[in-house]
Each structure stands twice: as C-alpha cells, then as structure tokens.
Design goal:
Order of helices and strands: HHHHHHHHHHHHHHEEHH
CATH topology: Hypothetical protein af1432
Distance between the termini: 34 Å
CATH class: Mainly Alpha
Number of strands: 2
CATH superfamily: Hypothetical protein af1432
Strand order of the largest sheet: 1-2
Number of helices: 16
Helix content: 40-55%
Length: 420
C-alpha cells in the first residue's frame, strides 16, 4: 500500500476473490442466520488455499493470524487506562482484548452464532490503538489535523490490510470479508460516507463491505462485548488504584444490588475478593440481559440468512432499554471519577507530551527515525510531501508500546551524560 492508504490489490483491481472453501465444514450446529465459514465471501487476495475437511475454517484462520501478528503482541504493553509502569495488575489492551473475546465467544455459542468469527473480530478491534490509550490517539489526531487526522479504528484497518508485513505473498493479514466487515463496522453501519477515512474507503472499494448495512450478528455481539468488558473491569482497576472506594459506588445501577448480594452471601471480604465478585456479577447481568433481548429480536425477525440480519432496520443484538440506561449511568460515573480523575489526567498529560515531542522531532529530522522507517518504497521520507511523511511517522508512533515510546523519548530528549 501507499502511504496515502491505498490497498494493494491483485492483477484485477477493485475485485476480491472467493476462496475455494467448499470442502470445509463447520463442526457444530449454527443458526441459518449465522456466518458460515464455507459461505465466506472470501479474501481480498486469493491464496489458492487447498483445504481438507479437517482444516481450519476461514474465521479460525483469521483468528490465528491476528493472534500471531506483531500488532497483537504489542498490545501487552499498551495502556487501557493506566500507563504500563503504574503496576503489573492493571489491564492492558491485550488483556482487555482477551476479555472481550471470551465474552463474545461465550455469547455467540449461546445464540448459535459463529463463535470463531465473533472471537476474531473481538481480538482485532483494538490493534490500531496508540501507546497511552486515548491520550495518545488525541495527541496524534491533533498533530495530524493538517494531514487527514488520526483515528484508531482506521488505524486498525491499516494494520490488518497493510502495516503487518510478515507474509510472503501480501501485506497485512488478508483476512476474510466477514472479519474485516466486523472491524470496519465496529460502531455500527456507516450511513454517512462523507466521514469515511482513506484506508476504509480503499478496503470498501476493493471488497464492497456494504457499509450502509448492519454488520453480522457476530460482529454486533463483539461490539457490545467490548462495552461489557471495559465497563465492568474498569471498576476493578479503579478500586485497586483507589481512585474511588466501594462506598462511593453503592448507589450506582446494578452495582449496589451486586454488592448487597456479595455481602449477604459472604459477609465482609477483602477488597480483591469483593472487586472480583463485583465484576463477575456485572458481566453476568449484562450478558444475561443481552442474550434474552437478542433471542427475542432474532425470533421476531425470523431471519433465514445472514443477509436478513444485515438488511434489518436496526441491530438485532442489544440490551433492554432499562439495561442500556444502567450502562450509561455506569459510563457517566467512570468518565467523571476514573477516566477524568486528576491522577489519570496527570499521566495522560505526560503521555501527550511524549507523543507530541516524538512526532515533531521525526517530522523535522526524519533521519532520527530507525533505519527501516527512514524510507518507504525506496524513497527517503525527507523527499516526501509533508502529508505522506506525517502518515508514516504516525504509523510508527502508533505501533509503539507505552514502554518503547517512553524509552525513545528518553533517548532523544534526555541531555544527560550517558550516551544512548
């Protein structure tokens, strides 16, 4: 791909290829409106796969490629809320992605959906995140304002379609249509094409992702599993960080009921046990509500195919109005008392300065970049337009872990006596 976000395509541009998957069978019963591996719409590039009945399905291949990618491994040291050095216990993008995948996979099985696809979408959804979480993204978006901006969801698409450079025959991971659809539509159908970003435009042009339609039920489920995971687990991290205390959350929807049940069953417990039991109960109540509501929605729709799901007037996977309101109440509390807590604000302020310093230096002195980032397709970054140079530098910074970004900043800006 070029630095402008164009997708590398086959000898027949603007066309994707259906892989020969007719011999593969799903080794479990799926609902007719689930995504079936043998009926996959294929990959952007035909890999001439020769499969036997015991081979992995397309979505199992997608999941495995994601897990084995460099971008996935780097999530281990990318912030969820707390910067990596704050403590080993707090969640990272990697642990969050695994938690989302576990919830998505379990719910997919309960609904008779394709759990491999739900898992693949869940594991991929955060691959484009910058170091330092949303603080890093906000800083890069501001720095890239004159060069097309920066968005972590688009960056995920860039990672999946071009920035992972490991396979002999193609850039990216060459994932199936269904997995890419789920990632691109992570927040739902895209009705307004004027807001589309270059990488997504390019993938849609090559594969026709039917952006105006809803995503598969599996992808819808993975999206809401993301909400369940972070809204539940952030209470655990915040309580352990002492950003607020148990008594501060007793009046919150669902939380007070869960705490009362824990105390009635187990009496007074140490904080670690209380928070774990609280998270368990929150996840359970959210999942049970979603399963009940989604089952009713699917029965009412009487869907026969996955296209019935995509073409429906609204998503089929969701919460009851009461539970959706409770979730918004929890989100509002966490926004004020965790995500905007002064301790977190201090960390994010430092993080933004690290990202800004690195970006500005690399833009003015691209020869300070690592050697393999100083050229793109044999062209020096110093000879490129500022916009093309900025996009490649943004790719480099976005790929960093928190730890690596801090170390790079120290190497480049620490004026101490030690040569680094």
């Amino acid at each position: 791909m070029s630095s402008s976000g164009r997708v590398s395509q086959s000898n027949e541009p603007n066309r994707w290829y259906r892989c020969q998957l007719t011999e593969i069978v799903e080794h479990r019963a799926l609902q007719p409106y689930a995504c079936h591996g043998p009926a996959s719409r294929g990959r952007m590039l035909d890999e001439q796969e020769h499969n036997s009945p015991t081979s992995r399905t397309p979505f199992q291949r997608d999941r495995d490629r994601i897990i084995h990618s460099g971008a996935f491994r780097r999530l281990k040291h990318k912030t969820q809320v707390f910067v990596y050095h704050e403590g080993d216990y707090f969640r990272t993008r990697l642990t969050h992605s695994l938690e989302v995948a576990q919830i998505a996979r379990s719910m997919a099985r309960a609904l008779g959906l394709n759990d491999d696809l739900a898992e693949a979408v869940a594991l991929a959804h955060d691959l484009g995140h910058t170091p330092f979480g949303h603080a890093g993204e906000d800083a890069l978006d501001r720095l890239m304002a004159d060069h097309g901006g920066f968005d972590h969801n688009e960056q995920t698409v860039r990672v999946l379609t071009q920035l992972e450079q490991r396979y002999a025959g193609f850039n990216g991971l060459n994932l199936s249509w269904e997995t890419l659809e789920g990632v691109v539509k992570h927040h739902g159908a895209i009705k307004d094409r004027s807001s589309l970003r270059p990488a997504i435009i390019a993938v849609d042009k090559a594969m026709d992702l039917q952006l105006e339609a809803h995503s598969s039920a599996e992808a819808q489920l993975a999206n809401l599993a993301d909400d369940i995971a972070y809204l539940s687990h952030d209470f655990d991290d915040a309580l352990r960080a002492e950003l607020f205390h148990i008594d501060d959350i007793r009046s919150l929807p669902q939380v007070g009921k869960a705490l009362a049940d824990i105390e009635s069953r187990h009496g007074k417990l140490e904080l670690g046990r209380v928070t774990h039991e609280l998270v368990r109960r929150l996840i359970s109540v959210f999942v049970e509500d979603m399963l009940a509501v989604s089952t009713i929605n699917l029965a009412a729709l009487n869907a026969k195919t996955v296209d019935d799901i995509r073409g429906h007037t609204k998503p089929v996977i969701g919460f009851s109005p009461e539970m959706a309101a409770d979730l918004e109440g929890l989100r509002a509390f966490l926004f004020k008392n965790m995500w905007r807590h002064y301790k977190v604000n201090r960390m994010t302020s430092k993080a933004k300065r690290v990202v800004t310093d690195l970006f500005d230096l690399f833009m003015s002195e691209p020869n300070t970049l690592p050697s393999d980032w100083q050229f793109y397709e044999n062209q020096p970054l110093s000879d490129m337009t500022r916009t093309d140079r900025a996009r490649i530098i943004a790719d480099y910074i976005a790929s960093m872990t928190d730890r690596y970004a801090i170390v790079e900043h120290e190497r480049l800006f620490d004026l101490g006596p030690i040569l680094r």
